[in-house]
């Protein structure tokens, strides 16, 4: 099979299996066991809208930011047809500190995106999980009231959804539209590069606040590494000899 046929098959499989939502594929410069199975950031997005552009730019900016790499969950390859969606994705959300929701025009036309959103908002209510929405070329009011092209995309596909997904998804959409987030068209006059920089800066700040460093006084030869980490998290301390 040539490359073009392979790519076409993969794109068809994606639409049939997950409709472009975030899928189970972990990509990080740091092995997952270093973080005890935890992720710093989970990216939720509609693949057909933003995968190759905004989401890709944001992902690469996140993993390159800071002295200590940010552990990010995003999709790379779609879930093979016939495999279960739920447990892998929902578990990844649960084990993440922060979810970035890139709400784009066709986000609500995917039942998988709605399931992600519902679980993220539930985690926000029950735990310290943080949900940060980016309204990408959509207005928050259109998300809340299902108006404009955002609403049209939802209504064109909702007949394929379960009633449970519809009701829970609508509630989650109302909740996320009330959160303080970024509107891509209004931030920096629509310059996406500046928006990405701002989001990364915000994530770094939140992770630094969450970071706790506990080092015993009797370890030898680690002073340089500890000071490097403390410099990254802006922790005031006396330099170790």
Model description:
By secondary structure, the chain is α/β, with parallel strands linked by helices. Helix content is 47%, strand content 10%. It contains ten helices and five strands. The protein has helices at 3-17, 47-50, 54-63, 86-94, 111-126, 140-145, 148-157, 163-177, 192-210, 223-232; strands spanning 39-45, 72-73, 96-103, 130-135, 182-183. It has a five-stranded parallel sheet. Helix 3 runs parallel beside helix 9. It is globular, with a radius of gyration of 19 Å.
Topology:
Blueprint lengths: L2 H15 L21 E7 L1 H4 L3 H10 L8 E2 L12 H9 L1 E8 L7 H16 L3 E6 L4 H6 L2 H10 L5 H15 L4 E2 L8 H19 L12 H10 L9
Parallel strand pairs: 1-2, 1-3, 3-4, 4-5
Helix pairs in contact: 3-9, 4-5, 5-8
What attributes characterize this protein structure?
alpha/beta, five-stranded parallel β-sheet, disordered N terminus, disordered C terminus
* Major sheet: 5 strands, parallel
What is the helix tally? Answer: 10
What structural category arises from helix and sheet content? alpha/beta
SS strand fraction: 5-15%
Shape: globular
> Strand arrangement, largest sheet?
2-1-3-4-5
Low-confidence stretches: 2-19, 23-34, 235-241
The strand count comes to 5
Radius of gyration, CA atoms, in whole angstroms: 19 Å
Give the mean pLDDT. 80
Helix fraction, binned, reads 40-55%
Question: What are the secondary-structure elements, in order, as H or E?
Answer: HEHHEHEHEHHHEHH
Cα-to-Cα separation, first versus last residue: 60 Å
């Amino acid at each position: 099979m040539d490359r073009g046929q392979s790519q076409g098959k993969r794109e068809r499989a994606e639409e049939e299996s997950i409709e472009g939502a975030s899928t189970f594929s972990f990509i990080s410069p740091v092995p997952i066991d270093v973080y005890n199975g935890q992720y710093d950031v989970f990216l939720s997005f509609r693949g057909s809208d933003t995968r190759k552009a905004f989401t890709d730019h944001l992902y690469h900016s996140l993993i390159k930011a800071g002295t200590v790499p940010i552990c990010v969950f995003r999709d790379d390859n779609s879930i093979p047809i016939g495999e279960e969606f739920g447990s892998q994705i929902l578990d990844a959300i649960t084990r993440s500190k922060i979810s970035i929701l890139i709400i784009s025009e066709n986000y609500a036309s995917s039942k998988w995106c709605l399931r992600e959103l519902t679980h993220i908002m539930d985690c926000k209510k029950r735990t310290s999980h943080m949900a940060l929405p980016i309204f990408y070329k959509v207005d928050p009011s259109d998300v809340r009231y299902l108006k404009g092209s955002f609403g049209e995309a939802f209504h064109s596909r909702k007949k394929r959804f379960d009633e449970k997904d519809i009701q829970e998804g609508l509630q989650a959409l109302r909740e996320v539209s009330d959160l303080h987030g970024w509107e891509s068209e209004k931030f920096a006059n629509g310059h996406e590069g500046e928006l990405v920089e701002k989001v990364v800066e915000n994530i770094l700040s939140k992770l630094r606040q969450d970071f706790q460093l506990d080092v015993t006084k009797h370890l030898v030869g680690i002073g340089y590494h500890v000071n490097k980490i403390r410099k990254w998290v802006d922790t005031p301390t006396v330099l170790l000899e």
